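The pair is set out directly below:
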Amino acid sequence: MDLRLNDKTAFVSGSTRGIGFAIAHALLREGATVVVNGRSDTGVQDALRRLRAELPDARVSGLVADFSDPAQVRDLLAALGDVDILVNNVGLFGLARFEDISDDEWGRYFEVNVMSGVRLSRHVLGGMLDRNWGRIIFVGSESGVNIPADMVHYGATKAAMLALGNGLAKLTRGTDVTVNTILGGPTYSDGVADTVTRIAQDQALTAEEMKATIIGANRTTLLQRFIEPAEIAHLALYLASPHSSATNGAAVRADGGVLTAMV
């Protein structure tokens, strides 16, 4: 299927690794022009080298910004031109006991996981509405619906992201601009892989044994394995394309059946 993205420009936040990198790669493969983003110039340049090596004809560039720093975000927005597709992917996650999460840590999580989407969407939405075409995609999580007890701060920000996407969609009434959220399930991104490896080492297990233990403890997964970043990217591609014109204000699942509710 031709996803009709050859004339589209996309920005993907947090796209030097993991799900964001997979989405950037998928968009480039479909012919879109893509701007990737990471916290360091080293990370951005490494991602650009990898993308250009795999896709020699790719139209790709990069912008450096740490979304926990509003000043860096302002600089990024000043350098970012018009985009047709915004993928709000950047995010923090981590295991923590609720009583151990400080106010500063709560603030950091909301700054990165929620305010990044606020600032980027505010920057691009007006232009999309003026041109009467655009796609805003939030990479959310099933943890925003079923809040994990050991990641309350993460789940709360993902719930806020879901609400933000739903509210923004209501501003697009009668246009060809859409705003949707992907509810991803347990995904073996680079960040998750790092965490799994660290926990495995602490428990004298291999990473594969630790992965199996984690998934085995999840009683509702139908997939019964970690999701691959490319599987999230496939859904993002559809939502980014003109073919998704009737999908707006939605929370679309790629959760491997973790969520048990029918809707």
Q: What stands out?
A: Residues 222 and 257 are 5 Å apart (CA to CA). The first helix runs from residue 18 to 29. The radius of gyration is 18 Å. The chain has a mean pLDDT of 95.
